[in-house]
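Table S2 (continued). Query chain:
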Amino acid sequence: MVKRVTLIVLDSLGIGQLPDAEKYGDKGADTLGHIISGYPQFSIPNLQKLGFGNIQGAAGGAYAVSEPAGAFGKLKELSSGKDTITGHWEIAGLRTDVPFKTYPDGFPKEFIKQFEKAIGREVIGNCTASGTVIIEELGPEHEKTGKPIVYTSADSVFQIAVNTDVIPLEELYKICETARGMLQGEWACGRVIARPYEIKDGKRERTSDRRDYAVSPPEKTMLDLVSETGKTVYAVGKISDIFNGQGVTISVHTDNNMDGVDKTIEALGQNFEGLIFTNLVDFDSKYGHRRDAEGYGKAIEEFDARLPEIIEAMGADDILILCADHGNDPAHSGWDHTREHVPVVIYGDAVKAGVDLGVRESFADIGATVCEVLGAEKTAVGESFWDVTRK
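Corresponding output:
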């Protein structure tokens, strides 16, 4: 009997365009394929052993092995959109038919005026931008005037960047809380994100104190259904932020991917039944958005090198699921997410090795599977694949 599932989201590791990708401007997107093109020495022996390279179309089959130790497949996205919340919510069994509102021309002037009045400061920016670029462009003005930098992206996000020597971290968080309260109704927005930075050796660098303020899921998700059984939902990284704490029983912050792996292993070392749900955000935030194929490739290699530690920490009644929430092709134009299939790999003593799940119709098949494994009520969307992957 499986008592615990560890679900790790390799944030943005898409494996090829979805059939409707052209509608989103993402024709030809292939995050994994273009990582390998930009970093030919890419090596992931431990992911390969589990069957990651055996997924249909993943890296053109170049990383397939003859006897994969896990089950594997790829998933389509039913929801409209290609953002973090939509992807994670669908993984957890919730379909989003109306995409979150985006602001490609910046937020309405009327909103900005009211927001400035509410926080007692004027703001600068209010445009679509890369976070690392805009702090270099507007950082000097912000540092001179104390005006927070506001920007957005192709996602439904209201991002606020400040130098924490100019505006203290706690004040930044309060500013974000104010924005979250205001971005409702006609000004609806999926997430408000605190983006603190500091100057180190003359260079502006974002810190690990990012905080996301999301809207709550409108219906129950996998997290609620598992926690309602009395089992633990242990959120690692930004998972609790994405679900606005709904269904989470324990939450731990992470500084980076490797800290996320450390804290996942720490959770595995504890004695509880339920779900460990981890997001490793660096793939997306540090490499996908910055269109850095080599950096992305090396980050996956770092995770691959830690995979044996995760497996070693698992017990006979644990299973591991690896997946992604969208793509972020480092060879694509711009700096935003791409609409792609995502991988799924399942491993554990209770999992039948070598099962090819093919192409599944929804990310939500993961949530449906987790709920079945843990004896929770079925998710509203998704079909479990546990019947074909269990021994």
